[in-house]
Amino acid sequence: MSATISPLAPKKYPKMPAIEGVRIATAEAGIKYKNRTDLLTMVFDAGTTVAGVFTRSKCPSAPVDLCRQNLGQGKARVLVVNSGNANAFTGKRGRETTSMTAAAAAKAVGCSVEEVFLASTGVIGEPLDPGKYSHLLAGMAKDARPDQWSEAAKAIMTTDTFPKVITATVKLGDVDVTLNGIAKGAGMIAPDMATMLSFVATDAPIAAPVLQDLLSKGTAKTFNAVTVDSDTSTSDTLLLFATGAAAKRGAPEITDPKDARLGAFRRAFNKMLKTLAIQVVRDGEGARKQIEVTVTGAKSARSAKRIALSIANSPLVKTAVAGEDANWGRVVMAVGKAGEPADRDRLAIWFGDNRLAVDGERDAGYSEEATSAYMKRDSIVIRADIGIGRGKATVWTCDLTKEYVAINGDYRS
Amino acid sequence: MSATISPLAPKKYPKMPAIEGVRIATAEAGIKYKNRTDLLTMVFDAGTTVAGVFTRSKCPSAPVDLCRQNLGQGKARVLVVNSGNANAFTGKRGRETTSMTAAAAAKAVGCSVEEVFLASTGVIGEPLDPGKYSHLLAGMAKDARPDQWSEAAKAIMTTDTFPKVITATVKLGDVDVTLNGIAKGAGMIAPDMATMLSFVATDAPIAAPVLQDLLSKGTAKTFNAVTVDSDTSTSDTLLLFATGAAAKRGAPEITDPKDARLGAFRRAFNKMLKTLAIQVVRDGEGARKQIEVTVTGAKSARSAKRIALSIANSPLVKTAVAGEDANWGRVVMAVGKAGEPADRDRLAIWFGDNRLAVDGERDAGYSEEATSAYMKRDSIVIRADIGIGRGKATVWTCDLTKEYVAINGDYRS
């Protein structure tokens, strides 16, 4: 946690309701941080289904390996998350740590080790001693309460400056079901699962394969469309839990991803993922401005997304926004370097509603004054129309400031 | 030009000899900068051959278009370069500017417009008025002198903090021939022709197709293996001119790239490109440290280069080096995100001679003290052995500092 809260932090946070079938406890295990919580235990009632998406890194963390393995069963009873140490690139000892943690967690809640899910975030390469926290799990499982969602979001923070929480209530059939989500950023964030950690739970009765379908489709335009610094973490994990408790109140059991009754739920879930993903960007390390990049007129949606990410990951574009400089020439550069089909002489560029370039050159009607005023906002929209097709994509990022360099220049020490 | 010279600037500069058949003039045209030269004219004797490599950007500048067009003839009589305005993304007016400049230059030296080569560097998207400098070309062509190489290097600088010059003399057959090179960086530097502009000239009598072969092969492990910020310019241009004047002194005319007599020349040329490319990195915007990244044991050389660039372009690796922090976990991350074949449990990482990780975890013999001392050096070598093949590659970059953000946060204004 940083001393300075991001200027893009929400003005207010939602009051997080309970999700029936989920109980939460946090603790100060002192893994790396002092005087703050760094351990989260989330206990699920029997019958809870689970789905997950993970980093595409070729060097995934030990907890990611464990989650992938346990996901096959589609059942979850407990989630244990620590901050301060990623248990990544820790070799055989890393696997011993996840085994021992899973055993302790399974014992604490009385389930099998295949129903345990783990996530760790923080420094890479330092061995994580399970002795620091595994003795706490039994007590946490016993003391866990349904009203601890905000505390959960705080316990998983690293360089985040604010906790990320969101809640939604929607109809499933005729019955209200609730979705709660938490996430943490804030550096080493790039597509291929953008946030390092995010957890969503609902009381809706949804089968694991349907959850997985919701999750896999939902991430493409949300978590996989945000980038802070183009650096993909070893630990990115997004888990979705469904306790099914709403079935008692008459919510229909959903076993088919095409079930029409899932519509409102899917929309609410996707909106939640988008909001959490954008919160991660708004708390990007050193972020002072949110940047939305939309590319239209590309050859395909896939091509549009690649161009959009080329713009969003360009250090020169990001530093220009930090300097409140409408340097659209750098957007031209980023379009040009993306390697995707483009025609220089058809390209048009907007910052907000200000069209700066059209037909391959500066817009004659371009107003430096209006654009400079626009650049002072804390949320900047960049649009590039490639002019050769119908492909469209939007991604989100933040500016690149001196604070990013300061935060990352001495993070480990 | 920046007020503060890079701490990585050369301690001394070579005295640049003349190249027979090349005359140089510089001038203060006031295109953007004041009280410094910003215009370079290089005049070549009749019979000079030329080769070039250019940016792969889909949005190339107007001068790049013109050079590509004129290269077909393989003959050069004059090069005109301006700094302060890139004449990129300037549409029809940009093409008019290159046409008018080429016409004025051709008239000044008495050659055809197809024998004119142009390069422009600076801001993108601002129209470049040829009226600002085209009237100067006739006088410059007349006053041009062979001993102006250092002045030439200064006139093409933008945010560079020192001029980049190099010279070499080698045998071609039994005759000494000379190679002179200049380059400018310093931001918007990434593979796909790394420097924005570099020009090399020799008095060796070498046919244009042979020059092109030398150049295309020479850039792969030199200019195309350096990166400052992963941003590829619209204007990257490297031109190689051969006046052939040494033929009078008995140097053999080289018309076949496989000619054995070319060996020493090729080696000297490649070394020159490497030195110029590394100088560009050492003058990268805000650079305080040079970083050499070598990847060994990858599946192929191509795979090794991709992994090396993933490490070299990672903002988290670059900020860690800036902070003198041997944060090898970020190297693991960068290997993992490269998308190339890798086996976490075979990976080994060195900073200098300090092996920090081996067999997928922290090296038991790792000394924090020795490594911390090493990180204080101004040239850092990172090596990652992937452990699965024989592919090898080396790339060069610089650290990412607050100064980079400062330089690029208000460059245009």
UniProtKB/TrEMBL annotation, chains A, B:
Record's subcellular location: Cytoplasm
Pfam families, per the entry: ArgJ
Active-site feature positions: T195
Residues at the site labelled Involved in the stabilization of negative charge on the oxyanion by the formation of the oxyanion hole: T121, G122
Swiss-Prot/TrEMBL keywords: Acyltransferase, Amino-acid biosynthesis, Arginine biosynthesis, Autocatalytic cleavage, Cytoplasm, Multifunctional enzyme, Transferase
Pathway(s) annotated for this protein in UniProt: Amino-acid biosynthesis; L-arginine biosynthesis; L-ornithine and N-acetyl-L-glutamate from L-glutamate and N(2)-acetyl-L-ornithine (cyclic): step 1/1; Amino-acid biosynthesis; L-arginine biosynthesis; N(2)-acetyl-L-ornithine from L-glutamate: step 1/4
Broadest EC class assigned to this enzyme: transferase
GO molecular function: L-glutamate N-acetyltransferase activity, acting on acetyl-L-ornithine as donor
UniProt-listed Enzyme Commission number(s): 2.3.1.35, 2.3.1.1
Reactions that this protein is recorded to catalyse: L-glutamate + acetyl-CoA = N-acetyl-L-glutamate + CoA + H(+); N(2)-acetyl-L-ornithine + L-glutamate = N-acetyl-L-glutamate + L-ornithine
Entry binding sites for substrate: T158, K184, T195, E285, N408, S413
Quaternary context: Heterotetramer of two alpha and two beta chains.
Family: Belongs to the ArgJ family.
Name of protein: Arginine biosynthesis bifunctional protein ArgJ
Gene: argJ
